[in-house]
Write a structure and sequence with these properties.
Blueprint: H1 11-19, E1 30-35, H2 42-55, E2 59-64, H3 69-78, E3 85-88, H4 93-100, H5 118-124, E4 134-139, E5 141-146, H6 147-152, H7 161-173, H8 186-199, H9 203-211, H10 221-233, H11 246-254, E6 260-264, H12 268-274, E7 280-283, E8 295-305, H13 310-323, H14 326-336, H15 353-360, E9 364-366, H16 376-390, H17 393-403
Parallel strand pairs: 1-2, 1-3, 8-9
Antiparallel strand pairs: 3-8, 4-8, 5-6, 5-7
Helix pairs in contact: 8-16, 11-12, 16-17
């Protein structure tokens, strides 16, 4: 078992010829490409794959993880080159389009999906009533905070937006950095945008109205205030947010160079790896405008089977079923720190527990990006990053119209 690059995939063509020969050892062993898009769990899946291969010597799994995986996958699907099995996000409109276009195996009544909770399956069922993914975990986002630094300076967890800003002012007055922003990686800003669209305003209603041609994003005062909030918050960040990558942001927080870090629970494995001794937890980002504080939720990681030949599909089913088993699901949940979407798995994370409690209590909203127009996720990332760079409100609002699916005039 090893990781490979996309360029190595051409070798699979030759391997396929050997499989059809009938006498070579390859007749008994099939190799699957596992296109794994979540960077934080590459090492975890190495361990899972090793366990699977030990129990299934006739199936080899090659984990592929590359930069810009989403763009690469889009290009591959456009040329009808679908991976054998892959990770995806069922809230992503690109996943929805690909599934409806037939690139993925329909798992609606498939035994491979039996390990997943029915309620989660229902939440990702598509407009045709079918399901094409096996959800493994649920995610949410909030504010990580350094427990030792908070205790050392007698700081309290904020319950309101005003308290949050007062906390940032207090930390900054001590000559310290309240927040770290990894704005070099546009997707990290895009995730904050999608959260605030539902937390601080009714983004669902605005998207529906724009999509129907009944509203213009440029007329939304709430959306303008939301954009300005991004600029304001960065006055509490480090000197060069746009020069700080996601990995650097994790390192800075893990080493105690910022008191807080607004990020998703998917960052937990990377933070733990950067500093295994760090004492930290999370709190929910308070809402503004008197709105109720809630947290975003969505399926963080799901397994999808490519619509390939039957032998490949059958082998992929075995791997997906293995990952979705209670034993492996528990390993994944304990390592990743995310609540499981699988039956028979308990949630044990002290770090993310405070924000997960909001999801469990129903004080949550679904990840809004499933409402975006096709390609909207990546476009929204670029739009909000560009606004932070140039502060061009008119351009940002025009981009949001396109992201929301405004009909062409």
């Amino acid at each position: 078992m090893k990781r490979i690059g996309v360029v190595m995939l051409v070798l699979f063509t030759g391997a396929a010829l050997l499989w059809s020969g009938g006498t070579q050892e390859s007749d008994d062993v099939i190799t699957l490409e596992f296109f794994q898009q979540k960077r934080e769990v590459v090492d975890l899946f190495d361990e899972i794959i090793a366990r699977f291969e030990a129990q299934n010597p006739d199936i080899r799994i090659e984990q592929v993880h590359i930069a810009d995986a989403g763009q690469v996958l889009t290009s591959r699907l456009a040329s009808n080159d679908v991976p054998d099995v892959l990770t995806h996000w069922p809230n992503n409109v690109d996943y929805i389009e690909a599934a409806l276009e037939g690139y993925f195996v329909d798992l609606s009544e498939d035994p491979a999906a039996e390990g997943a909770l029915e309620s989660i399956i229902e939440s990702i069922r598509l407009s045709n009533g079918r399901n094409y993914a096996v959800p493994i975990s649920i995610n949410t986002q909030g504010v990580f905070y350094n427990k030792d630094l908070f205790a050392q300076h007698d700081l309290q967890i904020p319950q309101t937006w005003d308290e949050f800003i007062a906390l940032c002012d207090q930390i900054q007055a001590m000559g310290e950095t309240p927040l770290i922003f990894p704005d070099k990686d546009a997707w990290t800003i895009g995730q904050q945008l999608r959260m605030l669209l539902a937390l601080d305003m009714d983004g669902y209603a605005l998207i529906d109205a724009v999509k129907a041609g009944k509203a213009d994003a440029a007329d939304s005062q709430e959306l303008k205030e939301l954009a300005q909030k991004f600029i304001y918050l960065r006055t509490y960040g480090q000197q060069d947010p746009l020069g700080t990558s996601y990995d650097q942001g994790i390192f800075e927080f893990a080493k105690g160079n910022s008191f807080m870090f607004w990020q998703g629970i998917w960052a937990i494995p990377s933070i733990n790896k950067a500093n295994p001794e760090l004492s930290y937890s999370m709190f929910a980002l308070p809402a503004e405008h008197g709105r109720k504080t809630r947290v975003e939720y969505g399926v963080d990681l799901a397994l999808v089977i490519g619509n390939k030949d039957q032998r490949t599909i059958d082998a992929a089913r075995k791997f997906v079923s293995f990952v979705a088993s209670p034993e492996i699901g528990q390993l994944y949940a304990d390592t990743d720190g995310s609540p499981s979407a699988l039956k028979g798995v308990t949630f044990n994370s002290d770090v993310s527990g405070p924000v997960v409690a909001y999801v469990q209590a129903g004080d949550s909203f679904r990840n809004i990006r499933h409402k975006y127009a096709p390609g909207g996720s990546s476009r929204s990332n670029t739009a909000i990053q560009q606004y932070i760079i140039d502060k061009d409100m008119d351009n940002f609002l025009n981009e949001m119209n396109m992201i929301f699916g405004r009909p062409q005039q």
